[in-house]
Amino acid sequence: MALTEVYWDHHIPLPKLAPIQAKVTVALVALLCFINSYDGEFVFDDSEAIVNNKDLRPTAPLNNIWSNDFWGSNLSSNSSHKSYRPLTVLTFRLNYLVAGGLHPVGFHVLNIVLHAVISALMIDVFAILIGGLAYDEKGRILNHAPKTSLLAAVFFAAHPVHTESVAGIVGRADLLCALFFQLSFLTYCKAFNKGSDRDDRFSVQWVVVSLLLCAAAMLCKEQGITVLGVNAAFDVLLICNVNVYELSQRLLLRKNPLDVSEIFRMGLLTRLALMGLGGLLMLYARWRIMGTGPPAFTEVDNPASFAESVFLRIVNYNYYYSLNAWLLLCPWWLCFDWSMGCVPLIKSATDWRMVWLLLLWCILIGLISQALCSQDSQRRRTLTLGLVLLVVPFLPACNIFFRVGFVIAERVLYLSSAGYCLLLAYSLGHCFCRWSKHRRLLCVMVLALLCVYVVRCALRSHQWRSEQSLFSSALSVCPLNAKVHYNVGKNLADKGNTAAAVSYYREAVRLHPTYVHAMNNLGNILKEKNELIEAEQLLSKAVSIQPDFAAAWMNLGIVQNSLQKFEKAEKSYWNAIRFRRKYPDCYYNLGRLYADQNRHIDALNAWRNATVLKPDHSLAWNNMVILLDNTGNLGQAELIGREALRLLPNDHTIMFSLANVLGKLQKYKESEGFFLHALRINPNAASCHGNLAVLYHRWGKLELAKEHYELSLKLDPEAPGTRDNYNMLRRKLDQHKRSAP
């Protein structure tokens, strides 16, 4: 363990702050960078992981978070993403409870605070990795590289690649994982603080606590298990002070027999065995939890993993690594999604992009050679541990052990960026040490870099505040990404701008001709615009590409029904139900088809199925009441209406339909009550005023009838039949006046 000052540290032009001051400074930098995202919306993946995730609701059993994945689907389901992050979901649930609902401010604030805490703790992590492990008499970490660790922590706090993890609420998984990762590492370091000068003593209890914190990190995000690799490297290189280069020379050249007695005496093998056993148990538990095996990803998610040859797969994986490295070096081109053509595959060795692979490996080999072969023990240790912190947390995302579901994901660089920041701070320290004549220029460059980082974080955080700005920002970064165009189109369509949405959906389909979701959404818009022929063609193509696409089958059925292709529509609806058995909206539309064909019993059965699957399906309940009313089954219509109102006591459309039925049954008083209740909920319903007027007309309350006829005509002068009924009432009132004595 190094117990002397790091020789380049005092050359760095930063003040030597007290530990608390340094942590507060770094935390403030982190807050400055990302504070403008605090009032952002739920964006992108937040919709599925938070807004539509029933596990966040207080009504959902708490046990669900332990049996469902990150997105709220059951882990045993074949459609599950298998992302098991119950502790992250638990924090979302706590946010929901504290805020009393889905209010994004609380979610964003906690993310920003977590990043500030993690950035502050990075000072201790960097201090140990750069300057060695030492404690004072009070058990506090001694920082032998206060300036280097502060500079590295400031770079980490302000790195723009973190924006997705901080400004995107779903990034909570990366933040919590990083926090427990740090705590696991720092706790592992605690195992060597025995208040004794003997280096061979360590605390098994602290090692076990470190393993438990590793498990907690893994329950926040799968990447958390990589802290075991960092702990092991730290133990070998810093605690046991093993010279890897010298060790490899002895083993390869068989010079001087290796003396392992010292390693045994220091308990290294015991600690490695504990960590190995703990890691295997975590992996086994994780595998059992996944149930049906790993998730199934498609070529769209990760095209390189589906490349024809092993050579092309390796080449493209390495190209992805170089792009990740570029994001760390120059985090200006950031995008919420890098799939679907954003990164075209390298298909031959003559592709000019092969240069980036060679450059990446030249740099890595240079760093590794310095880390292993340098005569300077401090440089050797810092470079090696920096590379470990850079590479090891990235391993789960590198496609070596298993296929991942993305091309590039900025969020997976959250932990790896700590290794990059350590190496950057080390490099700058050496520059200040060797080029003292250019100290002022170097200071300006470092300050400029930090300012660029802060400004880029602020700009990128602002883009993450809304889906419109987030999706639009990606158009210039990934213009070939079909998903970017799809999301811009979907956002526009959700805001009612369907005309603009059509062009983006068309571009998404052009860029990715088998993009079934874009076809489905485009078909829906064309259906609403009554462009039924093209809508049918698009939806038919979507289901031919993906035969189990239930939503597209249902939408195809709606279009075919509008085209009066009733047999084809019925088949499409049943295909949708075959692929999604619990599909209440499809049963509702099937009922409408049967009603159009006067197949009343089939229509009622379909709508009843819809209400069984979704008891609050207002349209299905209302249609049953109306159909029974129209076919003269007033008694059954009354029963269905009352049943519906027990489930939906404030649904004014069902009140309106039931009031009509009761009026025909001459239950005038009760009918009046439902009409008035419906009008209290929706006072501007012209049809409700008109039908209440008809009720009063029949009931003989002519003045009240006149009042509501007039209100109905005021709200809708063209209301069918109301004008005639009103004129009839006026003639009747005139007759009463003339006949009055």
From TrEMBL:
Pfam families found in the cross-reference section: TMTC_DUF1736, TPR_12, TPR_16, TPR_19
Biological processes per GO annotation: endoplasmic reticulum unfolded protein response
Localization in the cell: Endoplasmic reticulum; Membrane
Pathway per the UniProt entry: Protein modification; protein glycosylation
Transmembrane segments: 112-135, 201-219, 225-247, 268-287, 354-373, 385-406, 412-429, 441-459
One of the record's GO molecular function terms: dolichyl-phosphate-mannose-protein mannosyltransferase activity
Membrane topology: Multi-pass membrane protein
GO CC, one annotated term: membrane
Sequence ranges of the TPR repeats: 482-515, 516-549, 550-583, 584-617, 686-719
Gene3D superfamilies assigned to the protein according to its UniProt record, in alphabetical order: Tetratricopeptide repeat domain
Annotated DUF1736 domain residues: 293-365
Entry's EC annotation: 2.4.1.109
Record keyword Transferase present: yes
Alphabetized UniProt keyword annotations: Endoplasmic reticulum, Membrane, Repeat, TPR repeat, Transferase, Transmembrane, Transmembrane helix
Entry annotated with the keyword Repeat: yes
Family: Belongs to the TMTC family.
The protein's name: dolichyl-phosphate-mannose--protein mannosyltransferase
Organism: Amphiprion percula (Orange clownfish)
